[in-house]
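Changelog note: in this version the structure field was regenerated for every chain. One regenerated record is shown below for reference.
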Amino acid sequence: MRWDNLTGGPGAPDAPGALFGAASVVTRTFDTPEFRGITFHEVRARSILNRVPGASRMPFEWTVNPYRGCSHACVYCFARKTHSYLDLDTGIGFDSQIVVKTNAPELLRRELASSRWTGAHIAMGTNVDCYQRAEGRYRLMPGIIEALHERANPFSILTKGTLILRDLPLLRRAAEVAEVGISVSVGFTDTALWRTVEPGTPSPAARLGAVRALTDAGIECGVLMAPVIPFLGDSPEQLRATVRAVAESGATSVTPLVLHLRPGAREWFTAWLGAHHPHLVARYERMYAGGSYAPTWYQRQITRQVHELAAEFGIGPSRRGAARAVPVPERPAGAAPADPVQLSLL
């Protein structure tokens, strides 16, 4: 692996623009069932607040990402491309080579205390999941939430991880002084599909259980119904079952997002599709011939169906501007920039 494009390099740990020094990288493996086959690269980051590109349609400007790479191993994950910046593989490497910014909480405290910081909303979980399995060992999120609470800084979290419930007391305290928005990602409730496309995540039922626990604790929690996977998770019956389950979980909103396939993710997903559903490869090539996004007509169709079902079951789409209310674009955003600028989710 080469760290040259993100570190100061040997003998030059303070090089301008470096995200961390080469000497600060500590590589570890743990021989436990939950971490078997995963390598952790512990680094001391130089910055933790990332600005979202101006061309993005996201309803926030700043993000915090304590990890790079994700053991959730979702075959469609758009963030796979970020591993190529480290000269790491965007397939298995993204799933098993996890970069841990061990100083994230202390660094965030320092950056929030800067006279230049204006208290803008901070989104988390928009690149890789901050409640992936590594968080159970490194426990970075409690310190991050406490730093935000101390400054009464508004924030939001998007996750597939039920580990968020560990930090429920901290989230409740933070919500007393600032706007806190939580969304859980559940694109479908089909367990067979889940086991193959999201093999490292808690089950959809477990995630919806976390939604119920959060809402019962007085913390509003929406569901990002993402991704809706063409030809595998988009039948009327599947959409109905998912929206019904979301409604039963007590979610305050549901926002659909159709699968998009950016470079890095596209190649990995296509390989998975060829292995598991080869009869769909040609259909996907036609559907995504125009780029990373499904055709506008298809996105609108899915959005209309989900919103109609949501109205039927008594929940509505997320409000634009609400925490983690992710708008569904009809056109792809510009090319992803290099770090430390945050890749946009959409």
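Spot check on this record: DSSP finds eleven helices and eleven strands in the chain. The radius of gyration is 19 Å.
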